[in-house]
Amino acid sequence: MAYQYQPCFFLLLFLLFSVNASVLAFQQRPKISAVDLAALSAIKDSLTDIPGSRFFSTWDFTAPDPCSSFTGVTCGFNDRVTILSLGTGLSDSPGLAGSLSPALSNLTQLTQLILFPGLVTGPIPPQLGQLTSLRVISLTNNRLTGPIPPSFSTLLFLHTLDLSSNRLTGSIPPGLTKLPSLKVMVLSWNELTGELPRTVSAQLLHLDLKKNKISGPLPRLPSTVRYLSVSENWMWGPLKALESLSELAYLDVSMNQFSGPIPSSLFLNPSLTSLFLQRNNLSGGLPSSIKMDPTFQSYGGKGSIVDLSHNFITGDITPFLAGVETLFLNNNHLTGSVPEEYVKSVYDGTTKTLYLQHNYLSGFPLPQGSTLPDTVSLCLSYNCMVPPVGISACPASAGSQPSRPQSQCSVFTHRGSTN
């Protein structure tokens, strides 16, 4: 009888061994998609740690759970990579070098792609446009070259695009400014050219194009914009497109070639506390609170800054900007006496910086026996008056001459009265 049961015994042992082997094999399989693991391997092959960086030290491809052990990798419930952060972003880490692998497009569940500052070169892979779940692309402070891939215009869920501080060239793809979910677009400090897309239908909150070679006029922008910088470009034309931006809190269009008057609506926006219009070709006069809105007494407040310097602004200084904490009106064609509201604002500490040098101003009604607070910087040099004694808080660029030659004042005053 024992002999009859022996085959069954060996069969049972075989089945137990097979089950245990299967369980062991399952336990040894990495807890990550095989496709994603292969993509991460290709990504690692195209990048390297700059000496002093140890980002890839945890990327052990024999590890049982790369989703938990790989630095910068976050997976979803299905063991697919959803967030990839390349580099640490720590101040003591020099970052990565190399290039971005097209294999990034195989991470099809990716929602966030972040590249921290380093020395990564080469183009942005256009295959990233295949990652339809992407919400954040941040590839900042590297040495990426080539154009912004037009394929990004297909990323309907993209919320944030930050490609700042690289060496990107070409124009901004027109489809990019039409993306329905895009709220933040930062392309500053590149070498982008061409004009801005005429249609900007994306409900942007933050648009930063500073320090490029973008030309042409400002297009009409969505009223949702709160932060706008196009400074240090080659843009020109009037600023009419800014009139509808009622939500602006920060505006910088400085160092371009914009011309025409300053839209008065900018000064009726109480949330706009940072206004930089310097070094353009703007003309016309300063806003007048009486002409604009009788309920508005002043513009500005604590922390406010307005820079209208180095333009062609003419006429008298109106009291409307007397509440601004930091105010630059220097290097214009302003005339007349400085209103008493500014004098009071300076001496009670509301205005901490007031630069009026290099205009054609004729007076500053300084109160008798008053002393300028130590916290205040006031510059009145090179106007059609002798600056009050004791006021010399001027930058070096103001020059050493306290007043304009009388011949300049006579010619300009005569010309202004004739016009």
From TrEMBL:
An example Gene Ontology CC term for this record: membrane
Ranges where the record places region Disordered: 396-419
Main location, first listed in the record: membrane
Coiled-coil regions listed: none
Gene3D superfamilies (alphabetical): Ribonuclease Inhibitor
Localization per Swiss-Prot or TrEMBL: Membrane
Stated name of the protein: Leucine-rich repeat-containing N-terminal plant-type domain-containing protein
Organism per entry: Gossypium tomentosum (Hawaiian cotton)
Upper taxonomic lineage: Eukaryota, Viridiplantae, Streptophyta, Embryophyta, Tracheophyta
